[in-house]
Specification:
Blueprint: E1 2-5, H1 10-18, H2 26-35, E2 39-46, E3 49-57, H3 64-69, E4 75-81, H4 90-104, E5 109-115, H5 119-127, E6 131-143, E7 149-162
Parallel strand pairs: 4-5
Antiparallel strand pairs: 1-2, 2-3, 3-4, 5-7, 6-7
Helix pairs in contact: 1-2
């Protein structure tokens, strides 16, 4: 497996592999943030096909209460691994790759949000050394296949890890 920074041609491959909806796909929006310098969008590859992705948001979490609790903390988010390949180390490798990029910038902390109804991901993050910081609500919207925008709210916990 190889992890690379997302390139322009990778967006369509991610859309095909993981799906997306709307005029501007999830992957295209993440790539656009990367192009603005707000994030680094990582892609895990296996045998020439994308099998996972994760976004390292240098601007931190969207939730103001999280940013206030740990100012300047970049956030790992948008983690996704092909369903048939889960529990094979791809998510862990993406997190480690993101952590390395944080260290390269001289930043000593990184965070990750997890939905309260996702105990499997929470267990992974805890196993990797992340500790709970604050509960918050992750609010986002997406364009459905019907062309309408839908709002979504997830009850989450923001976890942090000190990098040394």
């Amino acid at each position: 497996m190889e992890i690379t920074v997302c390139g322009p041609a990778d967006v369509a491959l991610l859309d095909q592999r993981f799906g997306s909806s709307g005029a501007m796909s999830f992957h295209a929006r993440r790539f656009a943030r990367q192009e603005r310098g707000e994030s680094t969008y990582l892609v895990a590859w296996l045998d020439g096909r994308p099998v996972g992705h994760g976004e390292l948001r240098w601007i931190g979490c969207d939730a103001a209460d999280v940013r206030a609790a740990r100012p300047g903390c970049p956030e790992i988010g948008a983690l996704g691994v092909s369903e048939e390949l889960r529990s094979q180390g791809i998510g862990t490798a993406l997190i480690h790759a993101a952590e390395e990029r944080v260290r390269e910038r001289g930043i000593t902390v990184v965070g990750i949000g997890v939905a309260k109804d996702n105990p499997r991901a929470a267990a992974l993050y805890t196993r990797l050394g992340y500790q709970p910081l604050i509960d918050y609500y992750d609010r986002w919207s997406y364009e459905g296949t019907d062309g309408r925008f839908h709002d979504w709210v997830d009850a989450c916990t923001f976890l942090v890890k000190d990098l040394f």
